[in-house]
Amino acid sequence: MPIEQTDDGKVIISTADKSTSATVLLYGATLISWKTKHDNEHLWVSDSAKLDGTKAVRGGVPLVFPVFGPPPADLKEKGFVQHGFARTSVWELLGVVSETNEVVTVQFGLGPEMVSPQKMVTEAWQNDFTLLLTVELDQTKSQLTTKIEVQNPEVTKSWGFNWLFHTYFRVPEVCDVAVTGLENSAGGVADKVSKSEYSVSSSVTPVTIAGEVDRVYKNVPGSDAVQIVATVSKQPLFTVARTNLDDVVVWNPWTENANALADFSPKTGFHQMLCVEAGTVGRFVTLQPGEKWEASQTLTAHL
Ligand code: TA6
Questions:
Q1: Which of 26, 175, 228, 256 has the lowest tally of Cβ within 10 angstroms?
Q2: Of all protein residues, whose CA lies closest to atom 15 belonging to ligand 1?
Q3: DSSP conformational letter for 134
Q4: What separation in Å is there between the alpha carbon of 64 and the centre of ligand 1?
Q5: Using only C-alpha atoms, what is the Rg of the chain?
Q6: Which ligand 1 atom lies nearest to the CA of residue 164?
Q7: Which ligand 1 atom sits closest to the C-alpha of 166?
Q8: Which tens digit of pLDDT belongs to each residue from 7-62?
Q9: How far apart are alpha carbons 42 and 168 in whole angstroms?
Q10: Residue 251: Cβ-neighbour burial (10 angstroms; 0-12, 13-18, 19+)
Q11: Do residues 276 and 167 make contact, with C-beta atoms less than 8 angstroms apart?
């Protein structure tokens, strides 16, 4: 069987010889592990991350929908929280879509009746929707693809949303890597640390990490151009290929923020993680009644 469901809400996907696997927590449909070559883990998950459904997972690949970052004031008043409800709701396992010895594809779904807390959708966001997440594990290519389909089943109402795969990569040492491929981001950079917006030409690229970084690179060109590379050898560690995802967020909390996050441990763990997040967050995508929207990311592990 290419999938195994555990009593504590995990779905373990593996290829025939078990050398490649991915684990999806139904809570948030959060990928909490992706391993190649048996034990080579590529996702960073905090040692104190809550995996019991009491808090969004600190690590792995949390799904951000329908709002990226802090919600607008009117939604916040009605109980809407940062990064939305997709990552705090229990998704349904829809099943294995296809399987060969080396490639396994599994689907998960979420609708408004499953949202937790319910008031996020009944009192705050108030829109009907269907989310379909397809996870594809490819052993031969060392790839993990996550595809999202967002549907608007409303009859008369259109609505807008952000989408983001908030991927926490595991890296040997964050000071020794750089993020390449952001050089020509046409929409510039929204920098949450310096609280400023600037063009990429005036920022340092490739992006290296020597302190807190929290930036949105907007309208990043090249569907498979973003990579995490070793600074000295220039060897790629990961490639992030994107379809229909315009923006890339780069985040590392560094010392002070890691200390402030109760579910971040070890406190020095920011040295072994780097978030490179593909999404559409610089603008809201609008879906007319009956419309659907699709996007995906494919991660390749070169390690
Ligand atoms: O994607 C970057 C970011 O929005 C940062 O601003 C940082 O706060 C991070 O996500 C984590 O957010 P969380 O709500 O999971 O603590």
A1: 256
A2: 58
A3: E
A4: 10
A5: 18
A6: 1
A7: 1
A8: 999 999 999 999 999 999 999 999 999 999 989 999 999 999 999 999 999 999 99
A9: 9
A10: buried
A11: yes
Q: Is the CB of 192 under 6 A from ligand 1?
A: yes
277 is catalytic: yes
Return the DSSP state at 23. Answer: E
Which three-class secondary structure state does DSSP give residue 10? strand
Question: Tokens 């809407």 correspond to what residue?
Answer: 80
Could you tell me the distance, in angstroms and rounded to a whole number, from the CA of residue 77 to the centre of ligand 1? Answer: 20
> Cβ(82) to ligand 1 under 6 A?
yes
Reported as a pLDDT band with limits 50, 70 and 90, residue 239 is very high
pTM for the predicted model, two decimal places: 0.98
Which one-letter amino acid corresponds to residue 83? H
Does ligand 1 lie within 6 Å of residue 166's CB atom? yes
Residues 6+ apart with CB under 8 A from 113: none
Predicted pLDDT of residue 64 = 98
What's the whole-number average pLDDT of the chain?
A: 96
166 catalytic, yes or no?
A: yes
Atom of ligand 1 nearest to the CA of 253: 7
